[in-house]
Specification:
Number of strands: 14
Structural class: mainly alpha
Order of helices and strands: EEHHHEHHHEEEEEEEEHEHEHHEHHH
Number of helices: 13
Strand order of the largest sheet: 7-4-11
Strand content: 5-15%
Radius of gyration: 36 Å
Helix content: 40-55%
Largest sheet: 3 strands, antiparallel
Distance between the termini: 103 Å
Shape: flat
Length: 419
């Protein structure tokens, strides 16, 4: 392998490499307080225009909306589902001859690489992501972290010193920073969260309106009638209403009347429920490509189709991430001496069956073949022994029954021949 341009033929054990003190682009960022505010469609359009600026693009306003958007429960769930479909897969590092490199696979099979995978997958949703790593200690990368999205300008390849600025900062794709970070380009302009924003905003409005309706129509409305022209009577009634609970109330004159009129045609809550369900459905399609794996009402036939779509999305993510590791991460780590040359990352294509699924396969195999006991013990974790099968003796023939049958056939053929 090569370390800083030098050929080293002997494998390195417990490699330690210190990152230069000026090699962390993230250290140039000035900390700023994060502020949250109510978001709406107008703010989203303004933020999108700001991010698409030709002269001085800045994504800070868009990222602020993203951080509010991912608080939605359904969106958070489907994002995690898509990431888990990749994070749960087994992988290995192979040499150029196709043999698994156990040493390299062990280096990658660590917490630092799982964190790198998790952060890299975020680029699908958030857009261009810059992941920075620290020192190498005992063959492991340390301090894996993502540079905050508010502080990067992918168009100018800059880590911004101040979030509000567009061009004041350091170039993360230049030395000494580039050796210690990986830039993962967005697969979708501004990430998939940009398409989810209007759906989330409409959904939140529907939830708010539904909550308000529940307050008005879900609790008894109290009306206190009194002589409103008498201040003492009026104040006494108001005090009574305020101390009776949180339900809506009104103090009116004895001759006044209040009417609560619901919209006709359909149940009022169905309007909000349908809008929320439709928004969740659209979000599932955006992130997972289907709704069958998240919809409890999916039928068997359609669920199988949706599962195939989900698998297609997962396979696409696996190929994309493999390209990221082989094309960007491994070359960086080879220059640092952590990874040997002529190796390739790949996911294990062998399908992993559940115990129940494996049992069904083994039942079919046992009809034609024998399975060694050590294999059964390894698969199911149960100690087994070969059972001796007792050979059964044929049952003795009952002579009396045999004679009766013989005589019956004899009489039958004699009668047939005589006629």
């Amino acid at each position: 392998m090569k370390i800083f341009g030098l050929n080293i033929t002997k494998d390195i054990v417990n490699l330690d490499v210190k990152r230069p003190s000026n090699g962390a682009a993230g250290d140039s960022i000035e900390d700023q307080q994060v502020y949250r505010s109510r978001q709406d469609i107008a703010k989203w359009r303004a933020a999108l225009t700001y991010a698409e600026s030709i002269d001085l693009p800045n994504r800070i306003s868009l990222v602020e909306i993203y951080r509010d958007t991912v608080l939605d429960g359904h969106l958070s769930s489907v994002i995690q589902t898509r990431k888990i479909n990749v994070l749960s897969k087994h992988f290995n590092i192979k040499n150029s001859d196709g043999e698994i490199n156990e040493e390299m696979t062990e280096i990658f099979n660590s917490a630092w690489f799982r964190k790198f995978t998790d952060l890299a997958l975020d680029s699908i949703f958030w857009g261009t992501t810059v992941i920075e790593f620290g020192d190498i200690l005992e063959d492991k990368l340390t301090d894996i972290k993502r540079i905050p999205y508010e502080s990067i300008n992918p168009e100018l390849e800059i880590v911004k010193k101040y979030q509000d600025s567009s061009d004041i900062g350091v170039k993360y794709n230049e030395s000494p920073f580039t050796e210690w970070n990986v830039e993962i380009l967005e697969r979708e302009t501004f990430g998939l969260l940009n398409k989810c924003i209007p759906l989330i905003l409409w959904k939140k409005d529907a939830l708010g309106a539904w909550s308000l309706r529940s307050t008005i129509f879900g609790m008894p409305f109290r009306i206190g009638k009194t002589d409103t022209r008498n201040p003492e009577s009026r104040n006494r009634m108001i005090s009574m209403m305020q101390t009776m609970g949180t339900a809506g109330w009104a103090v009116v004159d004895e001759e006044d009347e209040i009417q609560l009129v619901e919209s006709g045609g359909t149940s009022g809550h169905d309007i909000y429920k349908d809008l929320i369900s439709e928004a969740n459905s659209e979000i599932s399609k955006l992130i997972l490509g289907q709704t069958g794996t998240t919809d409890e009402k999916a039928f068997v036939g359609s669920a199988e189709v949706h599962e195939r779509v989900s698998n297609a999305y997962t396979n696409s993510d696996l190929k994309w991430f493999s390209n990221v590791v082989n094309g960007q991460l491994i070359p960086k780590l080879q220059k640092l001496g952590l990874v040997s040359e002529n190796v390739e990352f790949g996911f294990d294509s062998k399908e992993i069956l559940t115990i129940a699924e494996q049992l069904q396969v083994d039942k079919v195999l046992l009809e034609h073949y024998t399975i060694p006991t050590d294999v059964i013990e390894q698969r199911y974790g149960s100690k087994v022994e070969i059972r001796e099968v007792e050979q059964r003796k044929p049952a003795p023939i009952n002579n009396s029954v045999f004679n009766e049958v013989q005589n019956a056939y004899k009489e039958f053929f004699e009668e047939k021949n005589c006629c």
